[in-house]
Amino acid sequence: MSRTCTKLGIIFAVLMMFAPAAPAHAGNEGPPGSALDLAAPDAFGSNSQWMVIQACEFDEETPATTASGNVLGTGYVHPVVAFSSWWTQVDLPPGAEVLQVILIAYDSNAAENVFLDFYAFESAAVGSPPFMTGWGPIQTTGQPLWTTVTLNLSATPVLIRAWQDLDLNGIPNWVSYQISIWTGNAADQSVQFFGAVVEWRRIISPAPAVATFPDVAPAFWAFQEIETLAASAITTGFPDGTFRPTAPVTRAQMATFLARALGLHWPN
Ligand SMILES: [Ca+2]
Ligand SMILES: [Ca+2]
Questions:
Q1: How far is the CA of 181 from the centre of ligand 2 (A)?
Q2: Which residues contact residue 66 at a Cβ distance below 8 angstroms, ignoring those fewer than 6 apart?
Q3: Is 32 part of a structural domain of the chain?
Q4: What distance in angstroms lies between residue 205's CA and the mean position of ligand 2's atoms?
Q5: Residue 66 within any structural domain of the chain
Q6: pLDDT tens digit at each of 268 positions of the chain
Q7: Cβ-based neighbour number of residue 88 at 10 Å
């Protein structure tokens, strides 16, 4: 590196020290104009979060018979052979629930559309094939040309679980969630897709039937939250087995809760 470049680098580094910090959760904001559009706190707690999966993150599903091209400068992808399909994994934390999946697409074809399915696959037990269950499909209709179509799951949100018995054969296996997008028979740029948006949120677990603490009965208003903290080992209650839900919290207890909840650990 030349001396000039080094000096420029130092100047740039100094300038960057005073530059506004980048948003901590860029890419996690909600739709424009919504309350979440401005809110970094949506990355925490049980608020809705929005996972944007762009077209370039999808794999061609059957490369031998499928190929795609990008529409230069738009972020959209279109098939260059007929009946093309793409897929991608939806990587969400177990315990999350999916409320909707939105397809962003372009469709100027009167006969063919763009489709989207949301799938869960249970990996194969020994001697049996993988099991697939799905939600959808949804599809474009061609009007307006640049459009979004929503797979609304809010009435029965899809609970993300890593280990499940989806085919009810008594044998649970690893489960992965995927989005599949495909187009009808149009080997031109008349059907395109930009990607998908997944609305999801974290939820806390249902409370057990039997109370952990004798002084926090199932009818207590914070029963579910206290049981969740106990199941997470964030709280263990007092040595006599009680939780004392109305007792004040000391700074020492708060430090204990926070350190356990955040899993604070670093090498010695
Ligand atoms: Ca169409
Ligand atoms: Ca099974």
A1: 26
A2: 60, 79, 81, 83, 84, 85, 86
A3: yes
A4: 22
A5: yes
A6: 344 344 444 444 444 444 444 333 344 455 656 655 555 566 667 888 889 999 999 999 877 778 889 998 899 999 998 889 999 999 999 999 999 999 999 999 999 999 999 999 999 877 778 899 999 999 998 778 999 999 999 999 999 999 999 999 898 999 999 999 999 889 899 999 999 999 999 998 889 999 999 999 999 999 999 999 999 999 999 999 999 999 999 999 999 999 999 899 888 7
A7: 19
Same domain, 217 and 139: no
State whether 73 and 177 are in the same domain.
yes
Q: Ligand 1 centre and the CA of 112: distance in Å? A: 5
Domain region containing 124 = 49-202
Ligand index nearest the alpha carbon of residue 141? 1
| Domain CATH code at residue 131 | 2.60.120.260
What is the CA(159)–ligand 2 centre distance, in A? Answer: 17
In a domain, 93, yes or no: yes
Global confidence as pTM: 0.76
State the Cα–Cα distance between residues 177 and 91, nearest whole angstrom: 7
Q: Is residue 153 part of a domain?
A: yes
Ligand 1 centre to CA of 56 (Å) is 22
Q: 171 and 64, same structural domain?
A: yes
Distance 137 CA to ligand 1 centre (A): 14
How many folded domains does the chain comprise?
2
CA of 166 to the centre of ligand 1 (A): 34
Please provide the DSSP assignment of 104-137 as one string: EEEE--SS--EEEEEEEEEPPPTTS--EEEEEEE
